[in-house]
From TrEMBL:
This is Prokaryotic-type class I peptide chain release factors domain-containing protein. InterPro entries: Pep_chain_release_fac_I, Pep_chain_release_fac_I_sf. Residues 113-125 have a biased composition (Basic and acidic residues). Residues 102-134 are annotated as: Disordered. SUPFAM superfamilies: Release factor (SSF75620). Residues 16-32 form the Prokaryotic-type class I peptide chain release factors domain. Belongs to the prokaryotic/mitochondrial release factor family. One of its GO terms (molecular function) is ribosome binding. GO terms for biological process: rescue of stalled ribosome.
């Protein structure tokens, strides 16, 4: 994954933010919307695109466009930086291929120690019982 080429393919749109902020919110466009077209990306290989489609399916639109928003700060520039960092982390997390789990068995020593501890616990509980006077 070439991050520099991917960042060139991003689309940005600034809109008015919601929430607290008084008149500042009503007159500035500080909310940043990032859009990335997964289908038409030249920076990603076909394998990477398929992997991202499967892992990010809940975050993609029907046209396979990834949309991210940020309206955390009052600064449009700071929101843009935050949403770019978030986008890169989402892509990196989506491209991680999990290792296949191999089934393992407990070692002989572990089995032996487990049985010994069971025997000790059983003996301890036997000592707590009242003796039989038959």
């Amino acid at each position: 994954m070439n991050t520099e080429n991917i960042l060139k393919e991003l689309g940005f749109k600034a809109t008015r933010s919601s929430g607290a902020g008084g008149q500042h919110v009503n007159k500035t466009s500080s909310k940043v919307e990032l859009s990335f077209n997964l289908e038409n990306s030249l920076a990603l290989s076909e394998n990477e695109k398929e992997l991202l489609k499967s892992k990010l399916s809940s975050k993609l639109t029907k046209e396979n466009i990834l949309l991210l928003f940020c309206e955390e700060t009052r600064s449009q520039h700071r929101n843009k930086e935050i949403v770019i960092k978030r986008f890169v982390s989402v892509l990196k997390a989506g491209l991680i291929i999990p290792k296949k789990r191999r089934k393992t068995k407990p070692s002989y020593g572990a089995l032996k120690r487990g049985l010994e501890s069971k025997k000790r616990a059983s003996a301890k509980k036997d000592l707590r019982k009242k003796p039989k006077l038959d």
